[in-house]
Design goal:
CATH architecture of the largest domain: 3-Layer(aba) Sandwich
Shape: globular
Radius of gyration: 18 Å
Oligomer: single chain
Structural class: alpha/beta
CATH class of the largest domain: Alpha Beta
Strand order of the largest sheet: 5-4-1-6-7
CATH topology of the largest domain: Rossmann fold
CATH superfamily of the largest domain: HAD superfamily/HAD-like
Distance between the termini: 11 Å
């Protein structure tokens, strides 16, 4: 890493928290949704997931939309459980490494997420690491559904830079998705796309 680096901006899913989107289909099939792929395609077309991640709709509206589209009398609690199936466990070695990183850099989190997943991964954080919030690891947390926009929109990166009082050139952004990395690079961030086999604590950038 360049010696000018003062800040680390981290994604959550597939960077700090293991996820598996392939678990969504069987989870919904257990509820009787046998046309999950078609349903997911239809709901994506009407921007349901984007709207949830930008805070435009509530969890209740999300569940009602899925219930109507599936034509099944699904309970909200069951829909939420299935929707949370993609969230797995925190990478404990990575989380411990953040404590070491925070002594040398300002740390920020930038995640595309939603109210439903936020509640669930905080429960997992408590169960695994005994922490009620990720704010013990970061100078500040930025969640798409609370900001009102999501990666890779340039607006969310500009929001973080202004709110945190940092510059892109002095910030290393780590995310698993190429689209998010490309958007950040275009704004002048230092970037690293974290591959499936990589872990933050093994990257060669950090000056500790």
């Amino acid at each position: 890493m360049m010696s000018t680096t003062k800040n680390i901006l981290l994604d959550l899913g597939a960077v700090l928290l293991n996820i598996d989107v392939n678990k969504l289909k069987p989870a919904f099939e257990e509820l009787g949704v046998n046309n999950f792929d078609l349903l997911h395609e239809q709901l994506t077309a009407i921007h349901l997931f984007d709207d949830l991640e930008t805070g435009k709709i509530t969890a209740d509206v999300f569940c009602e939309t899925i219930r109507t589209a599936s034509q099944l009398p699904l309970k909200n609690a069951n829909i939420i459980t299935a929707w949370n199936a993609l969230l797995l466990d925190f990478r404990t070695d990575t989380m411990q490494f953040l404590t070491q990183l925070s002594k040398h850099y300002k740390l920020f989190l930038l995640s595309n997420t939603n109210d439903i997943h936020l509640e669930q991964f905080y429960k997992q954080l408590q169960n695994q690491l005994g922490q009620s919030s990720l704010d013990v690891y970061f100078d500040k947390l930025y969640y798409s559904h609370l900001i009102g926009c999501r990666k890779p929109d340039a607006a969310i990166y500009h929001f973080v830079l202004k709110d945190a009082g940092i510059t892109a050139e002095e910030t290393l952004f780590i995310d698993d998705l190429e689209t998010n990395i490309s958007a950040a690079s275009a704004l002048g961030f230092q970037t690293h796309q974290l591959k499936e086999y990589e872990r933050v604590e093994k990257l060669p950038y950090f000056l500790l």
